[in-house]
Automatic annotation (TrEMBL):
GO terms for molecular function: hydrolase activity, acting on carbon-nitrogen (but not peptide) bonds, in cyclic amidines. It comes from the Bacteria. Residues 46-389 form the Amidohydrolase domain. This is Cytosine/adenosine deaminase. Coiled coil: none annotated. It holds the Pfam family Amidohydro_3.
Amino acid sequence: MTNTTLITNVRTADGARVDVSIAGGRIAAIGPGLAREPGVHIEDGADALLLPGFVEGHTHLDKTNWGLRWYRNEVGPKLTDRIENERRWRAQSGHDAGAQSLALARAFMEAGTTRLRTHVDIDTDAGLRHLEGVLATRHALRDVFDMQIVAFPQSGLLGRPGTDALLDGALAAGADVLGALDPALIDGDPVASLDLTFSLAQRHQKPIDIHLHEPGEVGAFTLGLLLDRVAALGMQGQVVVSHAFCLGALPERERDALLARLADLRVALLTTAPPSVAVPSLKACLEHGVTLFGGNDGIRDTWTPYGSPDMLERAMLIAMRNGLRRDDDLALAFDCVSSVAARACGFEAYGLQAGARADLVLVDADTLAHAIVARPPRKLVVANGRVVARDGALVQ
């Protein structure tokens, strides 16, 4: 693709037939019948549906076994079983976070994802090794793939001395966001854990994305403590709570009170919409003005055999988990892996409008709802103005 390109004969989700002019990696214009200037490269969209590049809001590129031989999962049922099993297996197998994160990132791009937030384990056994591998992947794809890295203490913050110093080093080395994990049930002291997390984030002027698996009243208590700190420290709009399973199980009155606080403090929620546990309701979040976006979590790793780098599939799973069947409701699920996810993560210049980064996906589908449920091969994927995939395969 040249520096100036015109994609013709495509349809937007609202049914409009348009052309898209791309220059310097940005959308220069979008509308019907754009002029064919001399020397401009023409891509015939052949009546395809035009979508913005997809956004993966929460995954773990460093953990994946994507493309490797099948991992036989015999891990125990507890969260700590999975944590300990993974640490042991990665050390024994020599799992290469650099090679594996690159393989999965390329698979995401092939399927239409152009922006991604990945959590990377920071561990007292591995140090910053996994981070270094993912930083190398980000550098390798820097011209086309917009990646945020979360420094994530998978074993908790307080239980393994030295973790806070490693997180400090990870943020200094290039991680964009500070992660955290279950301050009550993993760290055992939610006050101390949250105080240290917020102190680290403020020291580096970084946002926070916390895994909160804690159920019911325990999770609600931790969430309340977190919101207290957001308010006291002026970190409105800088915190994401991933999973937030407690919000799917609380009585409606208590849930709604927390949703109101989340909205007021502009704290976003991330859901993977798993079928096996209670999850925050998309409709309830929308009614209260809470931002809820989507992601896969782990993909084909020692935790789970499931997951896919296709964000249309994740949109479908979010829709199914929330009982969405109408075409307009399916569009809400797509927002969770596109515009809402971009806003929640802070990805700039996103969307299908002049001036936005030229991240585009073309699919053979009648409508957006059709694309979500059928998940056809991507006819064309454009990232930062460049064609990166054609007919379901990477071109670079």
